[in-house]
What does this fold into?
Amino acid sequence: MGQTLTYKILSGHVVGGKIAAGEQIGIRIDQTLTQDATGTTAFLLFESMGTGRVKTDLSVSYVDHNIAGFGPENHNDHLYLQTIAAKSGVHHSRAGNGICHQVHLERFGKTGVTLLGSDSHTPTCGALSMLAIGAGGLDVAAAMAGGPFYLTCPKVLGVKLTGQLSNWVSAKDIILKLLSLLSTKGNVGWVVEYFGQGASKLTIPQRATITNMGAELGVTTSIFASDEQTRIFLAAQKREQDYQPLAADPDTEYDRVIEINLSELEPMAACPSSPDNVKTIREIAGVQTKQVLIGSCTNSGYADLMMVAKVLKSRHINNMVECAIVPGSRAVLNMLAEAGALADMISAGARVLECGCGPCIGQGLSPADDTVSLRTFNRNFAGRSGTKGDQVYLVSPETAVASVLTGEITDPRDLPKILGVEYPKIEQPAEFTINDNMIEPPLSEEETAQVKVLHGPTIVVPEMPPPLPEKLQGQVLVKCGDKITTDHIMPAGPYLKLRSNVPEYAKVVFNCFNEQGKPSFAQRSLELKKEGVVGIIVAGESYGQGSSREHAALCPMYLGVRAVIAKSIERIHKANLINFCIVPIEFAEPGDYGKINLEDQLQIDNLLEAIKDLDEVKITDKTASFEFVGKLILSPRNREILLANGLLNYTRKKANG
Ligand code: MIC
Ligand code: SF4
It folds into this structure.
């Protein structure tokens, strides 16, 4: 039987373990990417590993998330990142150059290589047939130091695309369709591989929209074959040397196959407040919208934005709608400017933001209370936009531009009829405008010696975890439901600038559950910590969905949390918990979740012994007087990391023999 594309790349990179689904394997990492919001911690941890220059073929440090600069924090971070990149042999993409995934796709992606990124949308580069995986910053730091990345060897889901997209239906609708079929939970341990005639017709930016938002499925990554489309894109980026043909063997048998006929697809939206709450636009058409935001790392390709500009040309956005363009890369923005498309957008009334994450991560443009916001982004978790009770719909650029003209959710296929707008078919440019002057290449070793790393006063080296106790006595600090995202645990928006200062940032852990006039999660945790009582988080299914931000583990750990007991835990977050020595425990009987209450006292008598070599642990709820069993789904390496007080200490121990 032939090999899947995923297994071909894995086989070429494996350095430990057996390539078979479910086995723990270590793989060599060729490239890494970090962004400023996770990168500062990643580089602080990298520095403390003491390995000097990075050992990867290529590492790029992007500044794209935190670029608004309210107060000195952001710029302190940027200067640190710029100087540590210079010191470590890392490329540095400066603020304003674009969003990491979009820029990496354009300037650095290379077929057949592995990429580890401290951002959950790193799989975007799967569009170029790379094995691109999101991870916590500490895992990326370890990879920069030359260590392998450890993962569970995945099962492979083949998504066969047949047919052809109709006018006004786009790549976004393909991934929304898949989200409607698979949902955001229960997909841990899978890779999605796209194949079929329909896949071969999609351009690289279209594929990138799909692999990008594959992160919302909770899979390890998503990937397309490398074919003529790949060659054309890389040639247009003047990087044809980074192309090689690569595909699954023709006789491959996938662990599961789903078929999607592109000819039958129609425009869709992920309704509030989960990317899998998908409906067709026909079902929700007519809902009034007050805001339409177009762009982000999901839908910022040249064709997407040119299409929007062409539709807006000589028209005006609806007077009741605020419209902004959030370009993903400076290169695309430049090309829009050169083509006059930027002027078309501006004269139609669109506001043009600088290239960066911006409103996608709650950095401005929060919608008004009780209003609908349409975004071409990838996440609409409750409150992520910065407005409590927000109603964010995720749509394609086609649906977005149709709706911005009418002021209500509009099926773009109706545009010819209602406004006389014909579908503007946009050809991929034969050549992209290339201008890398906002990317600083690594310095030579001699030049590196002269660099002084700037640690501004708002950058605080994070504390590492103390050892776990043999007998764990703790209190349930929060009991939350299903699909708790890292945005619930560690809000971004105005707090994002505190990423480099754990004691400050930790004050807003679980802020969405804090009630006015009552002690916050952080205050309650620190009180208990003083008394020597450990904090415990109890949760439902799919705990820790969404982002790779390790602060969702690091900050609770700082507050004294040492265990999470959940019905299930998402891959990246579970790794982050282990890296920061918080024990991930899953209910053996999901029904036990209902018997536990907030503030219950829980006890585990033999925690260390269980971590050493047991798959289950007995937990006593002393308040509710019952016992239940927790599963420890841990690899031998996970166990060693927990027993070594976290990944940093574990790495140091290994280095010292
Ligand atoms: C996101 O989209 O949630 C982010 C912000 O890009 C995160 C990373 C972060 O929290 O810094 C992600 O996707 O991993
Ligand atoms: Fe930035 Fe949003 Fe993309 Fe995350 S999902 S990298 S915040 S644009």
In short: Residues 37-38, 65, 119-121, 361, 379, 492, 546-549 surround alpha-methylisocitric acid (ligand 1) (CB under 6 Å). DSSP finds 24 helices and 27 strands in the chain.
